[in-house]
């Protein structure tokens, strides 16, 4: 398929997990892809090699840094001359309840999960043309009826993301730019599984009617939809991709 032929996508956190799967999926649809990565240069370069260096670029940077977002945009424009799709995928998932959240914990996750997407959008919008797509990342846990207290800090950031989507869709609609979010359920990535013992992971799997975690490739399909011409009349929405969990 070449539904994204002639389009250029930026994906933060694009070297592993959902970001990597999304980069490969959009490239399969014909998009040129620029991934931002923080530290795993080898994985980032593997993504570029798989797609091909004529159609992909890896840029090292911190998704929570405004200066690094500006550099990401500059490097993308230098190589490909345009930006059509922006996916703010990078994030962190610290397990912190109210009593165990330090001020530094709060500031760190706000920088990456909220400030980063906010200012990436601010800096990139002047370069976007009508028909551009902005996709942010929330979580199904914002809508699940059963939730554990250690998700408090993480979900605080994702609640902010969902409100950003709602309002940005109004602000950018007159420019014919759509803004949506994908809200994965528990997904089999290092970000999600790290530090969770096997009994906990099994319990989480059992929350799904399918009895398993989602895969990064399944989440990437939703990213591809929001990136495509088929989603042109969809904006301000949060799509839960969770196998029926919530």
UniProtKB/TrEMBL annotation:
Short name of any one Pfam family annotated for the protein: adh_short_C2
Keyword Acyltransferase set for record: no
Keyword presence, NADP: yes
Alphabetized UniProt keyword annotations: NADP, Oxidoreductase
Any one GO molecular function term: oxidoreductase activity, acting on CH-OH group of donors
Source taxon at top rank: Eukaryota
UniProt xrefs under PANTHER family: NADPH-DEPENDENT ALDEHYDE REDUCTASE-LIKE PROTEIN, CHLOROPLASTIC-RELATED (PTHR48107), RE15974P (PTHR48107:SF7)
Family in the record: Belongs to the short-chain dehydrogenases/reductases (SDR) family.
Protein name (Swiss-Prot/TrEMBL): Short-chain dehydrogenase/reductase-like protein sdr
Species of provenance: Penicillium concentricum
